[in-house]
Design a protein that fits this description.
The chain is mainly alpha-helical. It is globular, with a radius of gyration of 17 Å. It has one domain. It contains five helices and no strands. Helix 1 packs antiparallel against helix 2 and helix 2 packs across helix 5.
């Protein structure tokens, strides 16, 4: 297996930025065209868009002969961090207040929930990209 280069890290970073942008645009469209009392279309968008982008990036990196373990471990670490931060919303909201100047428990809770769903989509996409690479015909 080849080592990761800065180009690979930059490509993965740009793929994640593009996934964030596309997710924000699609969530805005979902919010405009669907009723606001339904959580599932937004959650599905938050999960599926990063899944697709992460699967494409994972497949490309596996095709280049790179290991996906560092990417997957980083995503697992982020997921655990979000879960730990969601255990004490008051503490997390005080940290957020240092950066934003606003103290809103509900907003922090929903932001963490969305981050957990988003990172789960990225992690599932990493696994999907690895599986697709394993299943491809030689």
């Amino acid at each position: 297996m080849k080592k990761w280069t800065m180009t690979d890290v930059l490509l993965l970073f740009l793929a994640n930025l593009l996934a964030i942008f596309v997710t924000r645009v699609l969530l805005t469209c979902v919010g405009m065209f669907l009723p606001s009392n339904n959580f599932y279309p937004g959650a599905l968008t938050l999960f599926s868009v990063p899944l697709v982008f992460s699967a494409a990036a994972g497949f490309y990196l596996k095709k280049q002969g790179k290991k996906l373990r560092p990417y997957a471990l980083t995503l697992v670490g982020l997921e655990l961090l979000h879960i730990v931060l969601s255990q004490n919303l008051s503490f997390t909201t005080r940290i957020v207040k240092l950066f934003t100047g606003h103290y809103n428990l509900e907003s922090t809770g929903f932001s963490l929930l969305f981050a957990i769903i988003y990172c789960a989509g990225l992690l599932a996409g990493c696994g999907l990209g690895h599986s697709l690479y394993q299943k491809k015909p030689n």
